Amino acid sequence: MSVLKGAASGVPRGTPRLVVPAYFHPVVRPGDWEWLAARPGVVRFVVLNIASGPGHVPQPEFEAVAGRLAAAGTGVLGYVDTAYGHRDPRLVAADIRRYLDWYPVSGVCMDRAAAEPARLAHYALLAGRARAMGAATVFFNHGTHPAEGYAAHADLLGVFEGPWRAYRRLRPPAWTRDWPAALFYHVVHSVPPEEAAATWRLAAKRRAGSAYVTERSGPNPYDALPASLIGPGAHAGNGVPA
Fold first, then answer.
1. What does the alpha-carbon distance between residue 223 and residue 226 come to, in Å, rounded to a whole number?
2. Which residue of 51, 69, 190, 219 lies most exposed, with the fewest beta carbons within 10 A?
3. Kind and range of the H or E element at 61?
């Protein structure tokens, strides 16, 4: 079920928890997956993205790393593209079914989620189908603040995804104060390394219960964990998770 409006709506205590878009292969970045599996208290969810979805056949390498995460108590979410409400719901459901059948996922990340009120009924239907199939967690990744009605159908809303310069100008809408911080997720890429800790603190101030901050940029800023987490100088001070 979704989070409840009005519950625990204060500023989150401490640093937001990590929700990691793990768009990197276990064979290419084995150390990154080991880091994630070793920190269930810091990592709330890991988004599993095989091939912009589950692909057509199970991948043993991803099954293994997802199993380690699940065994450690970290939630694993299967990535599904919804094309801003234009993708056939039957195809979305088929992707969700593959994840649930092939990998130890606890829910689904519906990426490229629409944000306008006109698409709300469509996403309510998708969320209901996902839960009926066995998804305990439904995550709508809008990348921007959607109409408030979406909050009633999801456990997590991705309400910002973009570069650091744009994040500095973000002004969350007033309606977000009526919902718990745990509902909101901010993704900030292209962050100057010296600004990583300050960006985590800003995410907490803006009531993001979960976040992901990386210095990486380009077409896929999520092809490895950020140096602020796993680099030689990474540490738990100044608000950076560790």
1. 9
2. 219
3. helix 60-72
Tokens of 107: 């829910």
Q: What angle do CA 107, 113, 114 make, to 5 degrees?
A: 145
Chain center to CA of 63: 19
Segment 140-156, tens digit of pLDDT: 999 999 999 999 999 99
pLDDT digits (tens, 9 = 90+) for 58-70: 999 999 999 999 9
Average pLDDT of span 1-25:
68
| CATH topology for the 17-231 domain | TIM Barrel (3.20.20)
Q: How far apart are the first and last CA of the chain?
A: 29
Amino acid symbol at 30: P
Paired tokens of 1:
């079920």
Helix (H, G, I), strand (E, B) or coil at 159: strand
Q: What is the pLDDT of residues 163-186, one digit of tens each?
A: 999 999 999 999 999 999 999 999
Domain segments of the chain as ranges: 17-231
Confidence (pTM): 0.93
Angle, alpha carbons 60-62-65 (nearest 5°): 110
DSSP 116-154: SGGGHHHHHHHHHHHHHHT-SEEEEE-SS---GGGGGG-
Burial class (CB within 10 angstroms; exposed 0-12, middle 13-18, buried 19+) of 6: exposed
